[in-house]
Amino acid sequence: MAYVISDDCVACGTCISECPVEAISEGDIYSIDPDLCTECGSCAAACPTEAISL
Known about the structure:
Helix content: 10-25%
Number of helices: 2
Number of domains: 1
CATH class: Alpha Beta
């Protein structure tokens, strides 16, 4: 199960630099490619709005 980004995302960009496999894409609300996500949790730990969860 890959991490997902909820509507609480404010598109701040903090998570993108934390992802070691570049699975996060920019947008109004960022998204995580489930095929690339390794479930490391780095993005969730970095998210200031706690918008990222499993």
